[in-house]
Amino acid sequence: MSETALPFNEKIIPPSWRDRTVDIEEFKRLREESLKNIEEFWAKIAEELPWFKKWDKVLDASNPPFYKWFVGAETNMSYLCLDWQLQQGRKNKVALIWEGEPVNEKGEPTEVRKLTYYDLWRETNRIAYMLKNKLGVRKGEIITFYCPMIPELAAFLLATARIGAAHSVVFSGFSSQALAERIKDAESRIVVTADGMYRRGKILRLKDVVDEAVKQCPTVEKVIVIRRVGLDDINVVKGRDLFFDELMEDVPKNVYVEPERMKSDDMLFILYTSGTTGKPKGIVHDIGGYAVGLYATMKWIFDVRDDDIFFNTADIGWITGHSYNLYGPLLTGLTFIWYEGAPDYPAPDRWWSIIERYGVTIFYTSPTAIRMFMRYGEDWIKKHDLSTLRIAHTVGEPINPEAWRWYFKNLCNEDCAASSTWWMTETGIIMISHTPGLKLIPLKPGTNAMPIPGVDADVVNEKGEPCPPGVKGYLVIRTPWPGMLLTIYKDPERYIKTYWSKFPILLYYSGDFAVKDQDGYIWVLGRADEVLKVAGHRIGTAEIESALVQHPAVAEAAVVGKPDPVKGEVPVAFVVLRQGYNPSPDLVKELKVWVRKSIGPVAEPAEIYFVTKLPKTRSGKIMRRLIKAVLLAQPLGDVSTLEDEASVEEVKRAYEEFKKLLEGQ
Ligand code: WTA
Predict the structure, then answer these.
(1) How many angstroms separate the alpha carbon of residue 58 from the centre of ligand 1?
(2) Can you give the residue ranges of every domain in the chain?
(3) Nearest CA to ligand 1 atom 23
(4) Cβ–Cβ contacts within 10 Å for residue 471, how many?
């Protein structure tokens, strides 16, 4: 997004806010007040949660940047999500509404399950019992999950937390290779999967992917298979593979497993995400700080009420799925919806039919999805009653003002709180957003609004000094916050280097560019590093490059992001072939499939070009910046470190030829 085109001055106040105060200055005062003493501020919120044991210290900042929240406190996430909710009278309230993908001839869902808080509590206890007593799962061990969005998974994750183990959920769209890497890093003994899952009416065979991955993972002793689609021809390895239903057969209906007393800063989960090297980072999250941060942001940002129906379209394989499609809604006792399948199956109104069917009040989705639906047109929406919506936020990538205006009009009927919530896998919780549950400030199309109270985020220059309004800079966070990552799993050095070393002063570096406007609103512009956001999914260019160079035909590869009208950006690869290999359309196809298989469909390059050399610095570093400039037809900027000018010409030539080819079609 170009910062000059942003509607800094367009202030929108939804009609239903008319009886409430909408005041930027008042919000700023409240935020400034919170920053005077963040420990006191967050401790007050933490008081609203029950603890097995209270903290001795709110924040341990004695060894920065390894911050610890609520030190000395004891708690348990499954206790907070379930037992505490039962205590508050939610025993028979529906927690999870689950809708499977399959439909009948009329397009109606054939599988809907509703689990009350009591149902979920019971199932969680039963699974916890099974994991503990049958599989000997111990406190601290990491279980890997490779599953579709099914209720069993929710209970499994809560059960894992209950007995003090940790989870690593791997997105079910990742390939066996990507899965294997993550299992190996986590040294999981147990992998939980399903036989298959539905996607656009087809069955994806998940267990086959796990079989392939586990071949490379000597630590894996057991693979638990949930029968989701009822495939009868899956491979079963005797002694290793166990069917979930069989494991549970003799587990009593009403077992109670005491929630393990966990330290606040014990690990709840790791979630792998992409960075600037080929190796994914295992982001480690704690329990107590994360719970407090989620609890607060659910209230402020989603403005939750007890009768809300919450629909987040994010898959559990991403942080948005963890924070705001499982733990957040449960911590605040909500009814939330999991839809298993594709948004446009059997028709592009599947999500709208869900909103109508259950009377959804809070909707959370991605800009890419919005742009996809823009293409399908308004008629699909008009068929449904979406008047129940009160809150409709987006996440994952910047939302262009046009897409925001479209959904504000067509989904929100111009009367919802509609914010682009900025945060990251690493931050654990939303950091920058409107906070309709706390204080109202006007909406603006595409803005991220303001950092929430208790979060000292800002836009700064190379020296770490605040940028004045209108000047682009780096998005940083000055002080620790509850919910923040503890470290990178097994790699504390990389944690320091990646997030806390960019500036001469100690600041958390997000990796994003941003700009502030005259009112203090922040507008995140996109990544400042070699990380792409493809349809909101985070993928490192280095990961794609390292997959490409493993192909026998490829000597070198450079991957850059290219703007895309729907997906935000897409990967484009420039490839140098090894001797004996020649460029051909077939090889392009082959390399695309190769990347798909090595990482997953999200990483597949949209375009691949063959060149004989890549633009590099004299020290041998690929200058992706120059390749990007060629793609965007922008000035090349500083080329003084370039080793061989002809390489840029080659990139240009390869790209121009392709454009001509397209024009000729
Ligand atoms: C981007 C997703 C603009 C940003 C929760 C960030 C956003 C990265 C927004 C983290 C937003 C996320 N506006 N950009 N509202 N939300 N991003 O770890 O580049 O998958 O650094 O977490 O997504 O991606 P991740």
Answers:
(1) 28
(2) 530-663
(3) 396
(4) 12
- pTM exceeds 0.90: yes
β-pair partners for 628: none
Residue tagged 């966990």 (tokens): 262
Task: Tell which residue, 520, 502, 173, 576, has the closest CA to residue 342.
Answer: 173
> How many other C-beta atoms can be found within 10 angstroms of the C-beta atom of residue 396?
25
List phi, psi (to 5°) of 65: -90, 25
Mean pLDDT of 206-210: 98
pLDDT in tens, 51-70: 999 999 999 999 999 999 99
Rounded to whole angstroms, the Cα distance separating 221 from 187 reads 11
Residues having CB within 6 Å of any atom of ligand 1? 273, 318-320, 395-398, 420-425, 448, 510-512, 524, 527, 533, 538
Instruction: Give the nearest ligand 1 atom to 531 CA.
Output: 19
Give the model's pLDDT for residue 278: 80
Half-sphere exposure of 391 (CA within 13 A, CB side): 27
Would you state the structure tokens that stand for residue 316, as one six-digit string? 């559990």
Q: For residue range 165-204, what is the model confidence (pLDDT) as tens digits?
A: 999 999 999 999 999 999 999 999 999 999 999 999 999 9
The pLDDT score that the predictor gives to residue 4 is 62
Q: For ligand 1, what atom is nearest to the CA of residue 527? A: 19
Q: pLDDT-derived band of residue 635, with 50, 70 and 90 as boundaries?
A: confident
Architecture of the domain whose range is 530-663: 2-Layer Sandwich (3.30)
| CA-nearest residue, atom 24 of ligand 1 | 424
Instruction: Report the chain's terminal Cα–Cα distance, integer Å.
Output: 29
Q: Please name which of 487, 624, 519, 494 lies closest in space to residue 562, comparing C-alpha atoms.
A: 624
For residue 393, report the distance from its CA to the centre of ligand 1, in Å: 13
pLDDT band at 661 (very low <50, low <70, confident <90, very high): confident
Residue nearest to atom 13 of ligand 1 (CA): 398
